Amino acid sequence: EVQLVESGGGLVQPGGSLRLSCAASGFTFSRYPMHWVRQAPGKGLVWVSRIKSDASVTTYADSVRGRFTVSRDNAKNTLYLQMNSLRVEDTAVYYCVRDGLDYGDYAAFDIWGQGTMVTVSS
Amino acid sequence: AIQMTQSPSSLSASVGDRVTITCRASQGIGNDLGWYQQKPGKVPKLLIYGASTLQSGVSSRFSGSGSGTDFTLTISSLQPEDFATYYCLQDYKYPISFGPGTKVDIK
Description:
The complex is a heterodimer.
Chain A (H helix, E strand, L loop, with lengths): L2 E5 L2 E3 L5 E8 L8 E6 L5 E7 L6 E3 L7 E6 L4 E6 L8 E8 L9 E4 L3 E5 L2
Parallel strand pairs in A: 2-11
Antiparallel strand pairs in A: 1-3, 3-8, 4-5, 4-9, 5-6, 7-8, 9-10, 9-11
Chain B lengths: L3 E4 L2 E4 L5 E7 L7 E6 L6 E5 L3 E2 L7 E6 L2 E6 L8 E7 L6 E2 L3 E5 L1
């Protein structure tokens, strides 16, 4: 079964750090670009970051650039999101998302993890 | 950054209704647009990519159209399982951006 399982969320104080992990299974992880998408409680979806399959290129939303770092370990089939200098407005469910390969040049978020909740509060 | 807007923000409809949701980009994005469905407490699901190509396994009552700046998602005959929030997403240029969502609920 194709699956993404996030972990590492929790409660952290403003200015703190957290590292999210996403364990992939059921597919050849190393072939796929991966993304992080977040959703604040009761709000819409917001794209956060992308990493190419070989980790050669990373891209970030303006709101997290310089504070968040996406990385991957293809040998461990795991995606990471290192989040530093966290702000109250970073509070959200963070989803790990696969960018499918069978969609031409289009980004197609075809597999989503269940999400991990990050709460930034004092 | 490309801004995405959706209209309406919410709508009430009955089973069997034809429903149309509009998504507009702040600049031309070709047909680099996808549609996602999210039910309460669930993860989003890919419905359409490339503005009009139906994802495998998605009901044919869903269709997408448009190019450039204006796009539509149409549900030809609304079913009970279609009550959800729908998001468009542009992948023409980074940063990728979602629309704010359209909530479809029961009239």
